[in-house]
Amino acid sequence: MKQATGLKKKAIHISARALQLTNGLPFKAVYGGIGHILMFHRVLPRSKEMRLWPNAYLEVTPEFVEDVIKYFQKLKYKFPALDELTGTKSPPKPFVLFTFDDGYKDNLTFALPLMKKYNVPFAIYITTNFPDRKAILWWDALEKKILNQDKINFSFNGQKYEFTAYTLAEKERLFELLHNQIQTTPATKKTELLKSIFTTEELSEPLHTVLSWDEIKQLANEQLVTIGAHTVSHPRLSQLSNEQAEQEITQSIKLIEQHTGKKIKHFAYPFGDTQSFGQREINILKLNNIQTATTTLSKNITRQSLKYPLTLPRIAVGMSMTEDTFDLIRYGVIPMIRNRGRR
Ligand SMILES: [Zn+2]
């Protein structure tokens, strides 16, 4: 991991140094917990091509993941699998658990060899429209299009749009603008908007980055890997009708079970914030005998949170995090700040 630079990192560095002297006390006793579930998406070497930053935050390099493993190894952390978090025996402590969302091919090509090297179990949550080749990874298509073209023209709702972006700064601004536009367009209109901006080829091109069913089966047979479900189409479940929510969850579990021949016992909520799921979703998971479900509520795992295995908190991990950041996560300082003091 990198050394701290910049003002924000300087602040992290100073507070980490102060707390390192007391091994995180007093925060650690209250907010530290007994372990952490980490959330990743893609793992791939840094490309030499130009990138637009809003997409790059879903990616870390293999070297970065290796540094994170070594960091926790040095601190004598245990690396359990998701199955070990529930049941009669309490999990080893302190522990850290690696999870990867959505189902990208690089989880097989780059994450697996690395996790095998260190014998670290990990989970991959699959959105089944990825291997079914029905997903539209429009954010990747958008990045490529803006990087490749200086002019973007399209018509939507009877109106003509024309954009130009020559420099990297202009391209980043345009990416953000169109990203927000697409994301906030209601589902009923979204396909029409996407078809007006992109060609069919442009929309299907990013699918080469996702896992196929054969690859998912291969991963499911690896001893270190737990495959979990992550819905069919990655919606905000809370916004769906009862039938739709039921179908998104149950169908994704069934499909993965059919393709892997293994019982699916773990789930991650798409988006994962408190607005994206509720008691209804928890009840559907219970009916499907799901044992753990992870959120993106940024907290450490405590003995108390293990009593609610269908709403486990998770810490999102990005390349900008340093050893100091991880120290502050371990001490519970960053989770405490993110949750405004709530435990
Ligand atoms: Zn996801």
Description:
The protein has 343 residues and is an alpha/beta fold. It folds into two domains: 6-82 and 89-134 and 210-338, TIM Barrel; 138-205, no CATH class. The chain contains 14 helices and eleven strands. A five-stranded parallel beta sheet has the order 8-5-4-1-11. The protein has a two-stranded parallel sheet with strand order 2-3. A hairpin with a 2-residue loop joins strand 6 and strand 7 (159-164). Bound molecules: zinc ion.
Strand order of the largest sheet: 8-5-4-1-11
| CATH class categorisation of the largest domain | Alpha Beta
Strand percentage, roughly? 5-15%
Instruction: Find the structural class using helix and strand composition.
Output: alpha/beta
How far apart, in Å, are the first and last alpha carbons? Answer: 28 Å
CATH topology of the largest domain: TIM Barrel
**Helical content (DSSP H or I, runs of 4+):** 40-55%
Quick one: overall form? globular
Query: For the record, what is the CATH homologous superfamily label of the largest domain?
Result: Glycoside hydrolase/deacetylase
Topology:
Layout (H helix, E strand, L loop, with lengths): L5 H15 L6 H6 L2 E6 L1 E2 L9 H4 L2 E2 L1 H13 L20 E8 L3 H13 L3 E5 L11 H11 L2 E6 L2 E6 L3 H17 L2 H11 L2 H5 L8 H8 L4 E5 L12 H19 L5 E3 L10 H9 L4 E3 L20 E2 L6 H9 L1 H6 L5
Parallel strand pairs: 1-4, 1-11, 2-3, 4-5, 5-8, 9-10
Antiparallel strand pairs: 6-7
Helix pairs in contact: 1-13, 4-5, 6-7, 11-12
Zinc ion binds next to strand 4.
